[in-house]
Amino acid sequence: MSLDSLKARVPDHAKDLKLNLGSVIGNSDLLAQQLWGTVLATAIAARSTVVLRELAPEAKANLSPEAYTAAKAAAAVMSMNNVFYRTRHLLSDHEYGTLRAGLRMNVIGNPGVDKVDFELWSFAVSAINGCGMCLDSHEQVLRKAGLERDVIQEAFKIASVVQAVAVTLEAEAVLADVE
């Protein structure tokens, strides 16, 4: 199970995704922990068994046990936060924004890895889940920490390609049964 194996599964009509997958992971300027944590967190957020099975072992081989756990934690907490804050933002009644969230998210304050890395993973998961409030919040923290826009963009490039591969492979599995 590996990046090469995942690329081999991408159908010919999605050749651009195969090329982009190799590029965003194989040629990334992110530090190794940032890269593989982003890959793992977005693979989880993309909700594709195939993508996760292919990328998780490689992520695990490239991350410390603490970073591997933290990337999973980023995907978990952001799956909750993205729904909550996106909903709050989309509601016409802005009074919801004044109410206490009351949701535990202690891992954000103490993720067990460099906070910048955890923020980057949270940002990437928020890109997949489409939460503008969370994207803005995490992007501001990353910029305050000194990350440049091109580094932050690397995270959402990875998110977009991982998500697109997940959607494509899941669709191919269903279409194989239908056709």
Automatic annotation (TrEMBL):
One of its GO terms (molecular function) is peroxiredoxin activity. InterPro entries: AhpD, AhpD-like, AhpD_core, CMD-like. Disulfide bonds join C131-C134. Its EC number is 1.11.1.28. GO terms for biological process: cell redox homeostasis; response to oxidative stress. Residues 96-176 form the Carboxymuconolactone decarboxylase-like domain. The active site is at C131, C134. It comes from the Bacteria. Keywords: Antioxidant, Disulfide bond, Oxidoreductase, Peroxidase, Redox-active center. It catalyses: N(6)-[(R)-dihydrolipoyl]-L-lysyl-[lipoyl-carrier protein] + a hydroperoxide = N(6)-[(R)-lipoyl]-L-lysyl-[lipoyl-carrier protein] + an alcohol + H2O. Belongs to the AhpD family. PANTHER family: ALKYL HYDROPEROXIDE REDUCTASE AHPD. Homotrimer. Antioxidant protein with alkyl hydroperoxidase activity. Required for the reduction of the AhpC active site cysteine residues and for the regeneration of the AhpC enzyme activity. This is Alkyl hydroperoxide reductase AhpD. It comes from Streptomyces lasalocidi.
